[in-house]
Design a protein that fits this description.
The chain contains 10 helices and 11 strands. With 321 residues, the chain is α+β, with helices and mostly antiparallel strands. The longest helix has 24 residues, at 278-301.
Length: 321
């Protein structure tokens, strides 16, 4: 079992030393989180990890480790190969299904049991990145637009309209690619309605030239009817976008197929298809136009100097002004 975290995650070891992070089905894409719950109480969803991986590729970022859906047998694939601690959490439900609770901070009890039908359970398998002193060594960064994770307190960026100016004076956001990577991440998270971006990681070997790794999208695609504009705050406050990202967004908005059609077509390659309900796919189309509307406002604010908003990183690295 993976240590820490609010919900059950398992490390899966394959023959040949391969490893994956396992997240089981808890809710399907037609079930939305309770509107009275805070974002940090949302359930993690297996399909969110899978759909986010395909979205990352569709946007041309290629920063999310590979994720695939699989139908697992809880007895032969998990219980019979688990250690004693995990094996002891298995039980048979009153409905006759095989269930487990695992061990975690909040949702690992019989009232939140993970149950098969009767023993088969869909799950996501995320490619496991090595954690050693070689090329896999990573650095962890606190996201500058991290939420407060409090019921009563606001984050600094929610109280200070000039917050971006402060961030642009702090390394590694004071030059180079990192600030533009944060804008890319805002695009990615807004399209999937992910409010849970508290930290991110980069590869140590590449220093500040490493792009962030898009990890842990389990709380994305949680609500199809809600578009949380605060996810776009990095873009609306800084009025910055990478030229290549803007071009990709415009191509997706004006192409012969909508972004939702392309995403659904990509998801057809996963064994657990269908994964996203039609309302979730429609939401991606709607949110794409929301991003472009935010950028249009920025360009109106800098109408005499559009290069202040659209940064051609292939020509020069971003330098704050």
């Amino acid at each position: 079992m993976k240590d820490g975290g609010t919900q059950l995650k398992l490390f899966i070891e394959f023959e040949g030393e391969g490893r994956a992070l396992f997240k089981p089905l808890r809710l399907n894409s037609t079930q939305e989180d309770n509107p009275n719950h805070f974002y940090f109480n949302y359930f993690e969803r297996h399909y969110s990890e899978i759909a986010s991986y395909h979205l990352d590729r569709l946007l041309g970022f290629h920063r999310a480790p590979p994720v695939a859906g699989r139908l697992v047998n809880l007895i032969t694939d998990i219980r019979n190969k688990a250690d004693d601690n995990l094996r002891d959490t298995f039980y048979i439900s009153p409905a006759g299904n095989i269930c487990l609770t695992g061990s975690c901070k909040y949702y690992c009890d019989t009232s939140h049991g993970l149950c098969g039908a009767p023993e088969n359970l869909p799950a996501s398998f995320s490619g496991f990145l090595p954690e050693d002193d070689g090329p896999g060594l990573r650095m962890t960064w606190r996201h500058p637009w991290r939420r407060s994770y409090s019921r009563t307190k606001l984050a600094p960026w929610e109280m200070d309209k000039g917050y971006c100016d402060l961030i642009k004076t702090i390394e590694p956001y004071d030059g180079g690619r990192r600030m533009l990577d944060i804008m890319d991440m805002a695009v990615f998270d807004y399209l999937s309605n992910n409010l849970d971006r508290h930290h991110y990681e980069t590869f140590y070997e590449f220093g500040n030239e490493s792009s962030p790794i898009h990890l842990d999208q389990g709380r994305s695609f949680n609500k199809a009817t809600t578009d949380d504009e605060t996810i776009l705050t990095p873009i609306s406050q800084c009025c910055l976008i990478r030229r290549a990202t803007l071009k990709r967004l415009l191509d997706l908005a004006n192409g012969p197929q909508s972004i939702s059609q392309l995403l659904d077509s990509s998801l057809r390659n996963d064994l657990l298809y269908p994964l996203l309900s039609q309302p979730h796919l429609d939401a991606v189309d709607r949110r794409l136009h929301g991003i472009l509307a935010t950028l249009e406002k920025c360009l109106e604010s800098y109408s005499t100097n559009p290069s202040r908003v659209i940064i051609q990183e292939d020509i020069k690295a971003f330098q704050p002004v």
